[in-house]
Write a structure and sequence with these properties.
Elements: E1 3-4, H1 98-108, H2 111-118, H3 121-124, H4 135-149, H5 159-168, H6 180-194, H7 214-226, H8 232-237, E2 239-247, E3 253-260, E4 263-265, E5 274-276, H9 277-285, E6 288-290, E7 297-298, E8 307-315, E9 319-324, E10 327-329, E11 334-336, E12 340-342, E13 348-349, E14 362-373, E15 378-385, E16 392-396, E17 399-402, E18 413-420
Parallel strand pairs: 1-7, 4-9, 5-12
Antiparallel strand pairs: 2-3, 2-8, 6-8, 9-18, 10-11, 13-14, 14-15, 14-18, 15-16, 16-17
Helix pairs in contact: 1-6, 2-4, 4-5
Bound molecules: zinc ion.
Zinc ion binds at residues 247, 249-250, 252, 298, 300-301, 305.
Biased composition (Polar residues): 76-85
Domain USP: 89-421
Pfam families: UCH
Length: 427
């Protein structure tokens, strides 16, 4: 049973953490239980944590890398006035691989990740202890380079990349339709592991930080995370979620901080049928009452009490990935919600969801992975804003076509990619 107390007294898998994937799995990828990443999963509000390979080791130093996008690479013309179709190249469908193509195009249009690949920075950060020997990162970088340096607009085949992703995550062997968000998780996790700047993850002693103020606690937990997980992928995609649990009897409040790679938002319901992204965020962060069988044990009362639980964002990532939970499962079947979720292309203001008011949390949209159809048969496409041209394009496997920004919002939108507005002044 869970307790009302500070971290690490929540035990993974408890009712408190029912909305999370396990925070600290002790096995690496190939051994990871399918329950962690099985989608669609109605009970996971956000469901991703990196696989960790526990190892006793001296602590590896971390360094931070400030990104600059002034230079993209010798062969890439960021002015966009060249005739070469930089970033406007399609990916061939190898047989139900539209889920993969959709995500690859979204990631390829993530400027800092693209530049990381174009400059071959990943080669200087390869993690020699990684059992995959960095083949996935290398293929991902190659593919990104081809998409951005190809002199022909002919679609390219991602088959070498597919070979690597299925070596890393065998569930992608074959040609079945897969969930794009799940694929994104596996891919980012795989890339991260191969370029983790921490050579061997240190075993960190548990520290008593209960007495610290929440902010300080959050910082400590974040630094602890970075001592084990530190890569370009983490720099870009990982944020920190704060979960607060308050006892209804004595008012004791305990907090837990967890890293997140994306947020899985429940789709709000409203009479009119149309909801906003902010409605979904409000639902995600809505205070929940834990009562009855769910009653946690209060750390101060030393007995089970009715408690309230609430999420806030302690640290926003540079790239905020928002997954709309369109798929839900019940005992009989999986169903899809095709609710139109209205989301802003510019200036998504997330400040009301911050633990601290002062935080910078205004985002601009740059890519969307769309799912059309239903659970029996569907198709994935991507809409991406070309970082060099500032224009939106539709990526439908091999076909890439210009589109109006007014068409970006649709009831097919499934995974939204936002970039912190202040991280780059250019739009
Ligand atoms: Zn209490």
């Amino acid at each position: 049973m869970s307790q009302v107390s500070s971290t690490p007294r929540y035990s993974p898998g408890s009712s408190l953490l029912g909305h999370y994937s396990a925070y600290e799995p002790t096995v690496g990828y190939p051994l990871r239980g399918p329950e962690l990443l099985q989608l669609p999963s109605p009970s996971s509000r956000y469901a991703f944590s990196t696989s960790r390979h526990l190892g006793p080791a001296p602590q590896a130093g971390r360094r931070s890398e400030s990104s600059s996008r002034a230079l993209v690479g010798p062969r890439v013309n960021t002015n966009g006035n060249s005739k070469s179709p930089q970033g406007l190249v399609g990916l061939r469908n190898l047989g139900n691989t539209c889920f993969m193509n959709s995500i690859l195009q979204c990631l390829s249009n993530t400027p800092d990740l693209r530049d990381y690949c174009l400059r071959n920075t990943h080669r200087t950060e390869l993690n020699n202890n990684c059992r995959a020997k960095a083949a996935l990162m290398e293929e991902f970088a190659k593919l990104t380079q081809t998409l951005w340096t190809s002199v022909s607009s002919e679609a390219i085949s991602p088959s070498d990349f597919k070979t690597q992703i299925q070596r890393y995550a065998p569930k992608f062997v074959g040609y079945n339709q897969q969930d794009a968000q799940e694929f994104l998780h596996f891919l980012l996790d795989g890339l991260h592991n191969e370029v983790n700047r921490v050579a061997v993850r240190p075993r960190l002693p548990s520290e008593d930080i209960d007495h610290l103020p929440d902010n300080e606690k959050g910082k400590r937990m974040w630094n602890k995370y970075l001592e084990r997980e530190d890569s370009k992928v983490v720099d870009l995609f990982v944020g920190q979620l704060k979960s607060s649990l308050t006892c209804s009897e004595c008012g004791y409040c305990s907090t837990v901080f967890d890293p997140f790679w994306d947020l899985s938002l429940p789709i709000a319901k409203k009479g009119s049928g149309e909801v906003s992204l902010t409605d979904c965020m409000r639902l995600f962060t809505k205070e929940d009452v834990l009562d009855g069988d769910e009653k946690p044990t209060c750390y101060r009362c030393k007995t089970r009490r009715k408690c309230t639980k609430k999420f806030t964002i302690q640290k926003f990532p540079q790239i905020l990935v928002l997954h709309l939970k369109r798929f839900s499962e019940n005992r009989v079947r999986t169903s899809k919600l095709s609710t139109y979720v209205n989301f802003p292309l510019k200036e998504l203001d997330m400040r009301e969801f911050c633990s601290e008011n002062s935080m910078n949390a205004v985002y601009n949209l740059y890519a969307v992975s769309n799912h059309s159809g239903n659970t029996l048969g569907g198709h994935y496409t991507a809409y991406c804003r070309n970082p060099a041209l500032g224009e939106w394009y539709s990526y439908n496997d091999s076909r890439v076509s210009p589109m109006s920004s007014s068409q970006v919002r649709s009831s097919d939108a499934y995974v939204l990619f936002y970039e912190l507005a202040s991280s780059h002044s250019r739009l």
